[in-house]
Every structure is written in C-alpha cells, then in structure tokens.
Amino acid sequence: MAAFGDGADVTVVAGGTILMPELTYGRLQPARALLLTRTGLDTMRRENGTVHLGATLPVAALEDAPEPLASAARHVADPEVRAQGTVGGNLCAAHAAEAPRGDLQAPLIALGARIRSTGSGGERTQPVEEFLAAAPTGRLVLGIEFEEPQAGAWAALDRPHAHDYTALAVSACRGADGSDHLAASGAAPRGIRLAAAEAAYAETGDAGRAGRDAVRDAKFADDALASTWYREQMLPVLVGRALSQLEEAA
Amino acid sequence: MNLTVNGVEARLVSPPLASLLHVLREELGVTSPKAGCQQGGCGACTVLVDGEPRRSCLVPLATIEGARVTTVEGLGRPDDLAPVQAAFHEGYAAQCGFCTSGMLIAAHAYVERGGTDERGAILEALGGHICRCTGYAKIVAAVSAAARGDVATQAVEASYEPVPGEPEVLVKGSPA
C-alpha cells in the first residue's frame, strides 16, 4: 500500500481487461505500475451478515454473491473476461467514450456498499456513492463490504452480443432493515441511486409511480448503445420489472 | 520472466507489461493465438493459462510469472488430436480459420471441465468468440460432438509436403 502513496503517476494493474488495450494502442504510457497480483485481495467472506469482497476478486466469483450483484456480474462481458476482470477495477471503470462502463456500480449502490480504499490521507471507508462522486482517481480500492440484503433483483436491456456494455439496467434491493433501494446503470455517466423512485415506492408502494419518478434522477446521454429517448422510455419499464421481481424474491 | 509454453520452459525478455499475446507471437513465434482486435473483443487470441481460458491480449506478462500456457500447438498433434480438434476437423467447423484457435481453446476448456452438449451452455462458453464467417452452426455442432465424446477416432490424414513453388511456411508473425 505504501507503493501506491497518493496515487500520482501510478498505474494500477489488477485484472488488466481495461488497462491492456490502453497500453496496446499507446493511449497510456505508465510511469510506474503497481501490480495487485498475489496481494491476497481476491477473496469473498461472509461474516455475521456482512459480505466482504476483496478488490481483486474476479467478476466471475460474484456469481455466488447476493442479488442484484450476482445477476449484474453474470452479464459482464464473457466467461474469460469475467474470470480476469476484478470487482475493484469494474467499480473504478471510468465512463468510456462510447458507452457507460462499470456495470457493478449500481448494484453496489443498491446494496448500500461501503468502499475501503487507501491513498492520500491514508485508509478510509466511505459509502460507494461518496466514493464514486469523488472520482476514484488517486484512491486504491482495497475492499468492498455490505450487509446481506433480504432480497435483490436486477432487470436490464438484453445485450445484442456478449461484448456490448449493458445499455440500461436497474438494481433493486430490500435491505436487512426492510427498506427498498433502487439504482441504475446506463442512466448517467456512472451508476446512480434512483432516490425519487425509492421515495415514491416507499410512500405509495406503486411500482408504476416509482418508474415514472425514476427518470428525475437520470442524466441520460446518447451513445453507441442507445439514445436518450429510448433510455427514457425503458427506465420506468425496468424499474417496474425489478420491483416486481423484488417482491417475488422477498 | 519465465513461462512454460506448451510444456517448454521459456525465459523471456519482453517488458513486464507486454501482453501475453505479444510475447507468444513476437518473442516466441507461437502464432496460433491470433492478433485480432487486441482489446478483448474477438476471442481469437484465447489461450489456456494454468488450464483456464484467458484473452492473451489482456494478460500482462508480469501477472502470470511462472504460469503454464497452452496454445493450440500444445492441444494435440496431427496424429493425436484433442477431442475438440478432431470434432472440428470431422464437422468442418473451420471456414477462414482466424477464430478457430480461440474457439478450440475455449471449447477444449469447456469439454475438459465436464461441459455437456446442451446448446445454451455451449453458447455461453463460446460467447466471447466472434466468427466473421458466421460459421457458428458447425462450430456449436462440433463442440456438442466433442462434449458427447462422439468424435472420430481415426488419425487425421495430413500432408506436410509443401506444394512446389509455394513457400513452405507462412511469414513468421503474420496475422493468419
């Protein structure tokens, strides 16, 4: 961790699935590289109702994690890439030129995850939304933790091919305390909480109303995967599907 | 840096962040892994790293120090093909052949871990591999046959006599 320091000029190498094309095509020339191989951060532990994920846990290993994380992980790329890419790398994936990435951000928001990271000022643990809002450059993720939810559900637009990013997905979660949480991928440059939809659902229990309110928190954009218009039409539908699956699972 | 490639130990001079694909093709002259998209999107560079299929274009050399790497050259020999190779040969599952190395590696790993001939499971296992000839039907049929153990047992007749006037081997490091 000392080798990371404040993160200046350090290129972190975890799974390599995002990094390697940058190197191959000459878009990145690292001054210093920090390899996370063999740091022992590739574990998942469940203790006293809390799930602990190490930063370099492969995305493939999340297939055993609670929903909605497991379903979101199963829809990341293909089996080889899932076995290599890490949960920490996916969490920190910046918005790409052509599409939103970081499909695990929204399920982690819905799960109320906390991110343990190091960097300037030392180690800290903070809510995933706060971590993402600060733009994760300069922080090295060490681990992720969240309470086992009562139930979780995930609804998404199907991908035409394994290598497409998911254009739009909704994560729903009933926390240990019985409160319902909603988050979306593909509705903004990174995963976002659907706070207005959460409030509407808590107040009225009406999934349709929650769906209509969900667009208030979105910051849609046109990209190679879908248009703003299409995402606006589909977000309420996916919120409705996720909530009905959540009620079935609970 | 050291790797064991197809059973042969290799000491390497490529830089630590060189891709495994670059090491295999450019330093070791092992050309079955194809340099297609080189961003993890086509599957043609897939090799086995300690028995698990990996995109060699996405693997930094330094992260697999000491690993066992298997490419198609190490799957079988012309007189002793791996079951998926025999099935691909029997079922004419290669057209232009560019994706075939990656398909074979992924299919081999799938069959080795006890994969069945269920179509959905095969599609999932090959989901990261693109065939530009769209020859998927025969590829999936061949993997099904290999998974069932329903492959030709006779040795494949292969001639390695160069055609007079033709170059004996392709240019080393050429893309195909």
Description of the molecule:
The complex is a heterodimer of chains A (250) and B (176). Chain A is an alpha+beta fold. Chain A has helices spanning 19-24, 69-74, 79-84, 87-92, 105-110, 128-133, 195-204, 207-214, 228-249; strands at residues 10-13, 32-35, 44-47, 50-54, 114-119, 124-127, 139-147, 151-156, 169-174, 180-185, 192-193. Chain A has a single domain (10-249), classed as Uridine Diphospho-n-acetylenolpyruvylglucosamine Reductase, domain 3 (2-Layer Sandwich). Chain A contains nine helices and eleven strands. The longest helix of chain A is centred in the C-terminal third of the chain and has 22 residues, at 228-249. The model of chain A has no long low-confidence stretch (mean pLDDT 93). With 176 residues, chain B is of the alpha+beta class. Chain B contains five helices and five strands; from the N terminus they run ββαβββαααα. A five-stranded mixed beta sheet of chain B has the order 2-1-5-3-4, covered by helices on one side. In chain B, a hairpin with a 2-residue loop joins strand 1 (2-5) and strand 2 (8-11). At the A-B interface, helix 1 and helix 3 of A face strand 4 of B.
Write the CATH architecture name of the largest domain in chain B: Roll
Secondary structure: helix percent of chain A: 25-40%
**What's the helix count of chain B?**
5
Ranges of chain A where pLDDT stays below 50 over 5 or more residues in a row are: none
- Enumerate how many helices of chain A there are, as a single number: 9
